[in-house]
Amino acid sequence: MNDLISIPGKIWNTDIDIVLDSGSRRSIIGEDLAKELNLTPAECNVCLRVVNDSIVKPIGVVQVPVTFKSTTYLVDALVVSKFPYKLLCGLDFLDMCNAELNFRTKSVKIGSDTYKINETFFQTTDKVYVCQDSVIPAFSEAMVPVMSGTDFGIRVLEPAPHVLQQFGTLVCGTLVEFKNNCSAVRMLNPTNHKILIPRSTTIANAFNVFEIHAMEDKETSNDNSELPQLNIGNGLLKHEKRNLLKVLRKFKSVFSKSDGDIGHTSLIKHKIDTGNARPIRMQPYRKSMAEREVINEEVQKLLDNGIIRESNSPWGAPVVL
């Protein structure tokens, strides 16, 4: 939790670490803490959209007294299962208590109480520089070895503007994993001549990746699992994909879930009128043992899928493979 603002507080007499998150519109309490405090959630009609774009339905809502150094606030918190923190105070709480984040003093003020913030919250960027002379061929891209002040971990790279102006090359803005301060960055040379990037050239800035826990949504997962594998492609925007999935889930009964799930209709009925004709019964064709096994397997599949049923009829025709 080093990259989050966490301050000590209390709910009644229970000491907890409280996470402050302006990216969340609502305050959230974990189900485990709610049970520990013997809280009974009231019903609520709120759904949460989390980082992986899925929808989470809270168990309910509770009102809890949250005490800081000298002030107690009544916080309406949504109860969420498998939440990674005991209590997260969102934008609703920060607005209510007029919270202030001071970058100069590296502190946060809650009401009349001031708390120092962990230094790592502000130390979010490092220079990324080329660790050896690197040549990028014309009309090509290359993986260029780089170094940074980051020992280990994944960082977000933001290309330095002067690289394009000075060298005419493009740096890929992406997630990069550093090991022992080293990694590699993809660079593109769109020109018709090779370009040398000298050693120690700063080509990007590396920013911390804040860890965000996506909460599991069982209901949404079950709905998706009942649909066949979908290939929507990249031609739709995120909200268009969500709307499309809603339609597919609503009419999921019309989709085949397997090769044997072919469905049926009651709008059309078929029968063969034989009149007064005598039944025709033909002898089976001679088949090898291997062919008989295939026939038995296929007939069993038709039976299992409800396409045919067992019968005792004077009519009969041989199977053709």
What's the CATH class of the largest domain, please?
Mainly Beta
The strand line-up of the biggest sheet is 16-18-14-12-20-15-17
N→C terminal distance:
65 Å
Number of strands: 20
Q: Strand portion, in percent?
A: 25-35%
Uncertain runs are 211-225
At CATH's second level, what is the architecture of the largest domain? Answer: Beta Barrel
CATH superfamily of the largest domain: Acid Proteases
Structural class: alpha+beta
Average predicted confidence as pLDDT: 81
Question: If you had to describe this structure to a student in words, what would you say it looks like?
Answer:
This protein has helices at 31-36, 91-96, 161-167, 218-225, 238-250, 289-304; strands at 5-11, 14-20, 27-30, 48-49, 55-56, 60-67, 72-80, 87-89, 100-102, 107-110, 113-116, 125-130, 134-136, 140-147, 152-159, 170-171, 175-179, 182-189, 195-197, 202-208. With 321 residues, it is an alpha+beta fold. The protein has four domains: 5-121, Cathepsin D, subunit A, domain 1 (Beta Barrel), CATH 2.40.70; 125-208, Deoxyuridine triphosphatase (dUTPase) (Deoxyuridine 5'-Triphosphate Nucleotidohydrolase, Chain A); 218-228 and 236-254, no CATH class; 260-269 and 278-321, no CATH class. The radius of gyration is 32 Å and the shape is flat. 16% of the residues are buried.
